[in-house]
Amino acid sequence: MISRKVSLFNRLFVRRINTLPEVVGKIPFELPDEINTLRDEIRKFSQTEVSPWAEKSDIQDYFPRKELWKKFGEMGLHGLTVDEKYGGSNMGYLAHVVCAEEISRISGGIGLSYVAHSNLCINQIQLHGTPEQKEKYLPKLVTGEHCGSLSMSEPNAGSDVISMKTFADKDNDCFILNGSKQWCTNGTESEIFIVYAKTDRENPRNITAFLVERDTPGFKIGSKLDKIGMRGSPTAPLFFENCRVSNENVLGGLNQGSKVLMSGLNYERLVIASGPVGIMQACLDVAMPYMFERKQFGQHIGRFQLMQGKLADMFVSLQSSRAFLYMSAMAADKGNTDNKNCAAVLLMCSENCVKVSLEAIQCLGGNGYCNEYPTGRFLRDSKLYDIGAGTNEIRRFLIGRQLGDEVLE
């Protein structure tokens, strides 16, 4: 059961979003009118439809798929980067990150599952699928009738993902997959999975991406993992025991999985960075009204210079992260993405998000440390972004390596 105090605060929290001074769009460049209109629509939708599930999804580790997924589809949220002939709107990556930001502003966990479905699965099929694969899988994914996942990490192959042990042996018109995967977002819910496996015994770097359907014989989904944050986003291991996958379900070409994986990681890091931006905005949504309602020593605590400094630092972290994210998304819409920039966006946004979440707790003092307020959830959710889609240590390595390569060219 959700406590009455938590439910009451949640309603007040959403109401305050509507009454706070607008800080969202004030960045050093103008956005297209269609993007601003889209943001307004998704913000209202998130406040109305997502907000009632934000606390329950965290407290009870509940993924509100049956309540939200088809509604997301009706709003066009799942198909923002998908061609119109498959049910999408083809609005692009800027639209995608703006929508994911607004959902994550209300619920980090629901926002994460949304990005895993719409970007890691749907966008990969859009980018690398054959016409037949797109026709078969995208329409139901875009409407929200089906849910999608991507899985590449394994228990002993995380940052070093190329060392994966899952193998797919050719057998006439099929591949036989054996192995296991770990940390698959939406794993317990999805009907379609993008799975990476090695396909060359002589060259271990030859990897292939496969489209694996939930009911494929030999494919099993493990129990949901118990995480400290993102609890409304189900994560599970996957197991393959003589799992037969048709040749028709090879995604992006045989032995081309590394190329598919790396290009997918660029878009994943870009779009997933919208999550920390949304959480940072939520931190300000909570901290700002609190600091100008609570009084100590006869005045609002938001009038003390030390507290004003905290608000200023939170605001700068949010807006600089948002500007970097939006500029990178607009570049992606023009076909410009690279490892260095996409890693840098998520590195910046994730570290700023943890910092801002901690400051939000500090601004609320003892109340910030209590679960009657959402600041603890913000912190627990924010930490995932330091780890998921490649750790910050790996992101720094990628950035430094590419900078060196550019100098030495």
Outline the structure in words:
This protein is α+β, with helices and mostly antiparallel strands. The protein folds into 3 domains: 4-147, Orthogonal Bundle (Butyryl-Coa Dehydrogenase, subunit A, domain 1), CATH 1.10.540.10; 150-257, Beta Barrel (Butyryl-CoA Dehydrogenase, subunit A, domain 2), CATH 2.40.110.10; 260-408, Butyryl-CoA Dehydrogenase, subunit A, domain 3. The protein is 53% helix and 14% strand. It has 12 helices and 10 strands. The chain has helices at residues 4-19, 33-59, 65-74, 93-106, 108-128, 131-143, 257-272, 274-291, 305-333, 339-364, 375-383, 392-408, and strands at 148-151, 167-171, 174-185, 192-198, 207-213, 219-221, 235-246, 250-251, 295-296, 299-300. The strands form 3 sheets. It has a 4-stranded mixed sheet. Strands 2-3-7-6 form a 4-stranded antiparallel sheet, covered by helices on one side. Strand 2 (167-171) and strand 3 form a beta hairpin. It is globular and about 80 Å long. The N and C termini lie far apart (60 Å).
